């Protein structure tokens, strides 16, 4: 997938969802050093995934910072 997209890293962001435990477990297994996953949700999200509450102040800025930190 990385070769086809011609990139070193990929970030997936799921927005406005109430993720079932199965989705969280799948995302935790899928995430690796070149694929990072974040969810915009009120549901608490455990590491290594990142979760951002939808009502967070400056949500766009926080997500942009997260993306920059991925390198």
Could you characterize the architecture of this molecule?
This protein is an alpha/beta fold and 71 residues long. The protein has one domain. The chain has three helices and three strands, in the order H-E-H-E-E-H. It has helices spanning 2-5, 21-30, 59-69, and strands at 10-15, 35-40, 50-52. A three-stranded parallel sheet has the order 1-2-3, sandwiched between helices. Strand 1 (10-15), helix 2 (21-30) and strand 2 form a beta-alpha-beta unit. It is globular, with a radius of gyration of 12 Å. The two termini are 18 Å apart. The relative contact order is 0.20. The mean pLDDT is 88.
The major pleated sheet works out as: 3 strands, parallel
Mean pLDDT: 88
- Looking across the biggest beta sheet, what order are the strands in? 1-2-3
The fraction of residues in strands falls at: 15-25%
Distance between the termini: 18 Å
Give the helices and strands as they follow along the chain: HEHEEH
- Secondary structural class: alpha/beta
Number of domains as seen in the coordinates = 1
Determine the number of helices (DSSP H or I, runs of at least 4 residues). 3
Sum up the overall morphology in one term. Answer: globular
The parts where pLDDT drops under 50 for at least 5 residues are: none
Number of strand elements:
3
């Amino acid at each position: 997938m990385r070769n086809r997209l011609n990139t070193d890293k990929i970030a997936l962001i799921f927005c406005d969802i109430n993720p079932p435990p199965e989705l969280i477990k799948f995302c935790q297994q899928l995430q690796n050093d070149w694929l990072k996953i974040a969810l915009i949700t009120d549901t608490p999200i455990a590491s290594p995934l990142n979760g951002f509450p939808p009502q967070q102040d400056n949500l766009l800025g926080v997500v942009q910072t997260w993306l920059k930190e991925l390198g």
